[in-house]
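call fold(seq) -> C-alpha cells
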Amino acid sequence: VTEKATLLPETFSREDFAVALNKIDRNIENIITDGEEEGKYAADIKGNKNYGHIATLIALGYMETDADNNFRPSQPVSRMDVVRALIHALSYDVIAENDGGTDAAYDRIANKLGLLKGVRIQNSSKLAPKEVASIIANAMSIKFFPPENVSFGDECFYTKWNIVKRTGKIFANSNLGMATPKTQPHHVNIAGTTYYTKLLVSDELVGAS
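ret:
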C-alpha cells in the first residue's frame, strides 16, 4: 500500500519485526527451527507460528526478553528494539558494546551510520509500519562493519543479496479496492512487473522478491 493508505495497522509488533528481519538477513533465517528447545529462549513464544524467527533473534542477541523471560511478541516494537537489532545485523554491535552497550551507545552508532536519517518517529515506544520500513530501507544501504582481517568493501544488504531497488507508481492494489485481475493482495505492479511486498516506502519496495 502507499504511504497515504489508512488500512495499515497503527503499530508494528515485536513479532512482526522479528519475522521481517529474518527475511532480510538471510544469514540468520531458520537457524532455529519451529519448536526447537521450546521454553529456552522465551517463556511466552511456545507454539507461536513464528517461533523459529523469534528464537533466532533472541539467541543471537538481536532482541531481548524481559526479566521474566518473556518476549512479548504482540507488544509494539520500539525504536530501540529496531535500532539494536539492525546494529547487530550490520555487525556494528561490537563497537556499541565496547562503548558500554547502553541504549545511548547504540544510538551513537545509529546516528553516525544514518540509520534513522529522514525518519520522523511519532512515538518511540511503538513504531508504525511505515517508520519501521523507513529505518529498514536506510539499513539496506549501510555498509557492513568488517571483522578483523576481512574486508567487505562496499558490501551492504542490497549488494550482498543482489537486490535491486525498484521505484515507480502503484497501478493497482486490492487492499485499496482498486484490484485488477493481475494484481492480488499485497502485490503491486511497477513498470509492468508485479511484486509482492508488505513494506513499501514512498513507492520503493523494501526486501521485495
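Confidence is low (pLDDT under 50) at residues 1-7, 148-153, 167-184, 199-209.
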